[in-house]
TrEMBL record:
GO terms for cellular component: plasma membrane. PANTHER family: BLR6921 PROTEIN, MAJOR FACILITATOR SUPERFAMILY MULTIDRUG TRANSPORTER MFSC. This is MFS transporter. The keyword Transport applies. It is found in: Cell membrane.
Length: 491
């Protein structure tokens, strides 16, 4: 790495990273509130148009850990630019799409960009001053929730003013600028891990993820007890077991199973799974609730734009608390902040389940949810980054993001089944469906809080931490990583 490259101020690097992450987060949610518009424009039906979401989810789930691993091996900046380029290419295809097939292909290409988040974490860990790492990781993490929330807010105005094509033209401009800035301004990572991609393991990972996510995403329409869904779930379990066996015996695993067994890693991943169940289900069903005609006995008949504006305070709360989370973690520890975030979010979900008769009540509940999102996302990411070797940052944080996505898919599918279990006189879901659904999500967050209590009480510096068992096997690793371990959590 050249001296000039190393002199790039970390503030500049951070600005480039945040631009790319925000664009990725927006693409996760921009299409959700306008699926009915896409259904008409692409000449398809309600069942098939959901593949616009499912295809993106499947692609991102497969690509995220692979790009994280490639970043650790070949350079995080290089893979970050590649991920942004894939997002941009996918946006171009989607903007030009005139039928569902092309749109689905475009969303698959966009999903390849899912690696931006773990790659951004890795670059931060490698390049930032030690005392800035926790705050930067927290801010980037909060931007995922913020970007998803902003997508719900701006989708309606963009479609009304410019048409649905601009849901992709506008992010395309941002992504091209971010990719160019990353190429010329972000220094390449000095931390590399040796080896090669374990392609059989990558294939098995892809296979069980596709089987699982396809089953849970289609279960509400196919039926949870249908032969197709049960067969896919059984296949997912078998393939996952074979994948774990292959990874455990591999000299160069895609996902190091020893790393996944580290207590700080598996407990934080369990929290991520449960948190994903609750968060993505809320993103999908809160706008739907708000847009339900009041003649159904609930809802407010809001337009896409109006429902997005009602959720704007949630987005603001996520961002503000995400920024606060890193500083708070330095005082009380990331574990404590994570527990606090899950309980705050659970309070918001419970409030919505029990009181949603007015827009003011929904506003308060969703804002409390957003505050919990911001606190928990940032703390979760810091715990993962602190728990692994620097060379494993990309793949570990990528798997954590992946597990959260899997949780989101599970949560959205189960929520759909609960909400639509009983229809009211108008044919729309009954109010009790939403109440029961959000009570279920509240329970998921309470379980997440309990799981967070299992996380070890001592987290280390996210730039220098090497797990004790790694030090015993490779005593030189501590020197490579930077030396001493420092306490982050005073417990």
């Amino acid at each position: 790495m050249s001296t000039t490259e190393r002199r790039t101020p970390h503030q500049v690097t951070f600005a480039v990273l945040t631009t790319g992450v925000i664009a990725f987060a927006l693409l996760q949610s921009l299409v959700t509130p306008v699926l009915p518009t896409l259904e008409v424009a692409l000449g398809t039906d309600q069942s098939d148009v959901t593949w616009v979401l499912t295809a993106y989810l499947l692609s991102a789930s497969i690509s995220t850990p692979i790009l994280g691993r490639l970043g650790d091996m070949t350079g995080k900046k290089r893979m970050f630019v590649l991920a942004l380029s894939a997002l941009a290419l996918g946006c171009l295809l989607a903007a030009l799409a005139t039928n569902l097939t092309v749109m689905i292909v475009a969303r698959v290409v966009q999903g390849i960009g899912g690696g931006v988040l773990p790659l951004a974490f890795g670059i931060i860990r490698d390049e930032f001053p030690r005392e800035k790492v926790a705050g930067a990781v927290g801010a980037i993490s909060a931007l995922i929730a913020v970007g998803a929330g902003v997508g719900l807010v701006v989708a309606g105005p963009i479609v009304n003013a410019l048409g649905y094509h601009w849901l992709f033209w506008l992010p395309l401009v941002v992504l091209v600028a971010a990719a160019l800035a990353a190429q010329f301004l972000v220094p390449e990572s000095p931390v590399r891990t040796s080896g090669a991609i374990n392609w059989p393991a990558a294939f098995l990972l892809s296979a069980w993820l596709v089987a699982l996510l396809l089953a849970v995403s289609q279960a509400p329409s196919w039926g949870w007890t249908s032969v197709s869904v049960v067969g896919l779930l059984v296949a997912a379990v078998v393939l996952a077991a074979v994948w774990i066996l292959v990874e455990s015996r591999s000299a160069q695993p895609l996902i190091d199973m020893r790393m996944m067994r580290v207590r700080a890693v598996w407990t934080t991943n369990l929290v991520a799974l449960l948190f994903g169940v609750a968060m993505y289900a809320a993103f999908a069903f809160l706008p739907q609730f708000l847009q339900t005609p009041s003649a159904a006995g609930y809802g407010f008949g809001s337009s896409v734009t109006a429902s997005g504006l009602l959720l704007l305070p949630q987005t603001i709360a996520s961002f503000v608390l995400g920024l606060v989370s890193g500083r708070l973690a330095q005082r009380v520890g990331s574990k404590t902040v994570l527990v606090l975030g899950t309980l705050v979010a659970a309070a918001g979900y419970l409030g919505f389940a029990l009181a949603h008769g007015s827009q003011g009540q929904v506003l308060v509940a969703s804002t409390v949810m957003g505050a919990g999102f911001g606190l928990a996302f940032a703390a979760m990411s810091n715990l993962i980054v602190a728990a692994v070797e620097p060379a494993q940052t990309g793949v570990a944080s990528g798997m954590n993001a992946n597990i959260r996505t899997i949780g989101g898919s599970l949560g959205a599918a189960v929520m759909a089944s609960v909400v639509t279990a009983h229809a009211g006189p108008s044919g729309l879901p009954s109010e009790s469906g939403y109440t029961n659904g959000f009570l279920m999500l509240t329970g998921a967050l309470v379980l997440a809080g309990l799981a967070a209590l299992l996380i070890p009480g001592v987290a280390r510096d996210p730039r220098t931490h090497i797990e004790p068992d790694v030090q015993l096997r490779h005593p030189e690793a501590a020197l490579v990583a930077g030396g001493t371990l420092v306490g982050d959590d005073p417990e």
